[in-house]
Inverse folding.
């Protein structure tokens, strides 16, 4: 079976883990945590980085320091992994689900912009925070949100869990990496992400005060002075030194991972074009990192569930994309702006094997299997 996505752990991972064990530093204090934070901040171009026990924990803390709280509204992408939205619920705030644009599959930020301006004019509640998700390795259009920040003081949190290394290549943000353009960025090092620490996350920001408040919340809000004195409800969200050791080893190979992802995408683009599908998004103003190469099958040909099963029979592991958040039980009554594009992406979307270690031969196997499956009339809807 050609797996959908699996990590490459053949760098310094075991060497650094041995170092942790030999030194006795295995928990949330240790040299790897600090080193990982410093070098990660440098790699993405942020001033500060705070390591967390997961991407979801990073989002929870980032949203809280950004001002998400009971009674507040947080705008978020409708088409995303549910962790993006659960983190809003943890703060007690309400989610406003915003549909995708069809070009990048990311939040339709123009639409949100117009809606916020209208809400302000009509005296309706406006979001305190906008959590924009860069899905599947492609940056979202941020300019409309930066305008909202300037006009209404809305804080921008970027969920960059899937898009480490992606950047804008034109416009106001040209040269900036995702996770560094809003007020706070969040990343995930889960096993399936661009790089892994076995489980972990990172908060990035240029704002020293936000970084300090985030760090404080991840360490049980314990004050540096006094004995077990805590000034608010904090969390045990620090990354362990063991996890940071793996993260550090992976970070050393991040450039190679990103090169591999882009080469994989280029080959899929070259080989898939004759098929009845739309290839992975790549806007002219973006340099995507292609975390998980995903396509939209044309409307008519086939039922995507059947395609996944048929590909599995040909030893290719593919997977459908997420149902829109507005379909998930906890969020069925959430406020939303549109949702039809998210529905369409869900209905027709298919992710293809994208491990950094996949070979061109294996990619050909994937393409041939997909060609065979899509030409088989029995899969038609
Ligand atoms: C993976 C992911 C998260 C959560 O990260 P974890 O490390 O698994 O907690 C959040 N948002 C998005 C978009 C993700 O893909």
């Amino acid at each position: 079976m050609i797996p959908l996505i699996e990590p490459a752990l053949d760098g310094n991972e075991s060497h650094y883990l041995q170092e942790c064990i030999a030194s006795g530093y295995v928990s949330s204090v240790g040299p790897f945590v600090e080193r990982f934070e410093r070098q990660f901040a440098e790699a993405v171009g942020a001033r500060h980085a705070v390591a967390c026990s997961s991407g979801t924990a990073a989002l929870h803390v980032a949203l809280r320091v950004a001002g998400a709280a009971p009674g507040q509204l947080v705008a978020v992408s409708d088409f995303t992994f549910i962790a993006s939205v659960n983190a809003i619920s943890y703060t007690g705030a309400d989610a406003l689900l915003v549909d995708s644009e069809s070009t990048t599959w990311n939040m339709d930020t123009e639409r949100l912009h117009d809606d916020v301006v209208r809400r302000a004019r009509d005296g309706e509640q406006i979001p305190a925070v906008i959590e924009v998700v860069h899905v599947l390795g492609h940056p979202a259009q941020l300019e409309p949100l930066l305008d909202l920040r300037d006009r209404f003081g809305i804080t921008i949190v970027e969920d960059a869990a899937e898009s480490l290394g992606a950047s804008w290549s034109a416009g106001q943000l040209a040269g900036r990496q995702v996770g560094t353009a809003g007020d706070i960025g969040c990343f995930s090092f889960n096993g399936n992400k661009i790089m892994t620490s076995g489980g972990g996350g990172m908060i990035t920001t240029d704002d020293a005060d936000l970084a300090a408040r985030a760090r404080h919340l991840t360490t049980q809000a314990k004050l540096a002075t006094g004995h077990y004195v805590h000034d608010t409800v904090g969390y045990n969200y620090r990354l362990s030194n063991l996890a940071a050791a793996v993260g550090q080893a992976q970070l050393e190979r991040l450039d190679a991972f990103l090169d591999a992802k882009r080469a994989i995408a280029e080959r899929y683009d070259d080989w898939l074009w004759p098929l009845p599908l739309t290839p992975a998004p790549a806007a002219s103003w973006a340099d995507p990192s292609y975390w998980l190469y995903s396509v939209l099958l044309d409307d008519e040909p086939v039922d995507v569930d059947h395609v996944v099963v048929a590909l599995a029979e040909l030893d290719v592991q593919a997977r459908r994309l997420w149902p829109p958040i507005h379909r998930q039980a906890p969020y069925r009554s959430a406020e939303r702006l549109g949702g039809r594009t998210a529905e369409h992406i869900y209905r027709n979307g298919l992710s293809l094997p994208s491990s950094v270690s996949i070979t061109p031969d294996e990619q050909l196997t994937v393409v041939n299997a997909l060609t065979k499956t899509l030409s088989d009339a029995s899969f038609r809807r």
